[in-house]
User: Fold Adenylate cyclase from Mycolicibacterium mucogenicum.
Amino acid sequence: MAIMDDARLAGGTATPASAELVAAVRRSVCVPTATVRECLHPDADILSPTVARSRRILTRTSRLGAMLSVFFAFQALSTGPYTMWIGAVNIVSAALFLMVPALYRFGELVAPAAFVLIAYTSVTVVTINIGTGSGILLYFAVAGAITLLIVGLEHLGFAAAVAAVGIVTASILEFTVPAHTGAQTEMESRVSFVITAVSGCLIVMATVWSVLRENAIAQRAIQAEYLRSETLLANILPESIAQRLKDPAHTVIADKFDDASILFADIAGYTQRASDTTPADLVQFLDTLYTGLDALVDRHGLEKVKTSGDSYMVVSGIPHGRADHLEALASLALDFADEVRELTDPKGRPVPVRIGIAAGPVVAGVVGSRKFFYDVWGDAVNVASRMESTDVAGRIQVPHNVYERLQHAYQFEERGEIDVKGKGLMRTWYLVGRTSGASRADGAQSSPCSMA
Assistant:
């Protein structure tokens, strides 16, 4: 059975602020798309992010409109018996404003249109009865501006139509309704003008604040998604390859390396372990093993290419060449052996690992358009795979040319000639340790894995 690596297990990138996000991405549990779809009904009341944003803004603005209507209602009721019915109009308007957000279920523009209709109607009725001197016509401009903020540029035509209707209505009222109808005294009219101007500015500022708040939330969400996608990409590809892949000018990513080294590691007896171990225990075991190996690869500054079931592939000198690539990979192989020496499977059995190493010219690149991956090809890859598959459990096998290049710094035991598929007889050696003058890679200290 094939177990996907961290990159493919990660379904939510990194700066310290995004550390929790990155950790969540690395350990997230993927939910099959089909399962998600089964949970969603076609008639479910699900709003798109843009509509949901508009609804939140309109909800806040409608509440402000209701508060202002209640304020003007009390003002009218306290002025005198001639304006009591104007107070009633404002009370009704306040109730209608509070009901507006519920109209989104009927369409994206139904609720904003209802908001404008309530505002324009109440302003027109009040203007006809108290006159234009109170400055209440300013609310036509306020309503037009608020509409644009609510619906956004996606519905600029709708906002323009609302503004046009407001301009026409305000112009008609200005030329047909006197400044003072006698419902208010001159002082009351001036006070109303000041209140109208102040409240109009406040409601516009509050709506702008709401829009900016929504934009800030959206920006944080975009940043979180960006970090998540960057983390996923970094788990799939080497960083330099990921940067090249994101370049719109890139065509084919393929690089030739005249000399690089390859390592394959494999659990001996994996098939038997997989058959008598529960899926959950098997996945946990492989996750523990690969997490420890991944940390070792990172500390040695090398590159894990892929895992397939229990097979683990690492390259050195790719995608960036280095003169000591073979020495670095040999050091990693020895640390691999130390890492798993005390490791046991879920049933308490030892976990012997076969490791094979080879070196030579290879080609590396990204293939595929969906579920693309970075891979390495060449004779050295084939030889490294054969070194692992023909190895003895618990040993690190290398061909003779690798022995010749490493014998000055590492200790070997000769195995002799073995028959290698596709290559014939090959003289191989076991890598057993470092010479007294050799040392581990910087920072590469082993810490045995444990299933406890």
Observations:
- The radius of gyration is 36 Å.
- The beta strands are 254-267, 303-308, 311-316, 353-367, 373-377, 396-399, 410-420, 424-434.
- The longest strand covers residues 353-367.
- Residues 1-45, 441-452 have pLDDT under 50 and may be disordered.
